[in-house]
Description:
The chain is α+β, with helices and mostly antiparallel strands.
Amino acid sequence: MIRQPGLHSILQVSFSPVSRTWPENFVTGRNAPADRIQPGVTGKHKNQHNNDMAKQSRPDFSFYLGHFTKEEQPDAHEQKDNPALKVTEGKSAFEKLKSMLADKKIIAGTLPWYKKNAVCLTECPWSSLVAHSKVYSPYAIGFSKAFIFGTGGAPAFYVRADQFDRQQWDGLLYTFTTPFWPSYRPKKKNLTTKFKTIDYSHEREWRVPHDLSFDYEDIEFVILNRYKDLAELDKDIKDAIGREKFFFMEMYEKIETLWPVHNIGQ
């Protein structure tokens, strides 16, 4: 029988102080292609980076990124060569998460708008977490920005749609771009484009331009919908990740109901 943690332990996991330590694999760039390995950060430069991170500790900024699974088919599912289809088709959001944890890998899916593959993550702040889970699912794996950057990942570029197709993008850079055509754009005839309203800027998206392999110690948190989901995960995986790194969306929703700091749904 699994003992359910109390409110204090959930709060302790969810809102624990940010670690000042950079993961060792940031130096190796283990997932990055050989010609794109990120340089290591050592000595006084490492201390400076840590100090810079500490200065950026603010409620609208996060040192962590989450990859959320989805109940429906992956984006660009009409493309039969989408590699994500082979491992996700017919699976629920929770089953997809379990597969990722078992394989220690997230398969890069084909992005809409162009045939480029990437693993997508979000720097979603706590104030938007519940709303974000409604769009995707209440299941996610979280990593530090340092780890993702070390694997070749970076923030996505939101590019005006009327400029998007005019560029001669480098192949790798193209993977990081997303057309941006917000609803508040001027309604002028000379601003026409093939895109309709498209605005994902609120997701603060990061991308890794290839499959993302990881070890359990690289995981910073795992989001599950409810506590009973934890019982369905393999014991060895839970022990390897650390049970203190799991937290539950239903508990977070309860906290927001009792103490509506973020006024969710209003």
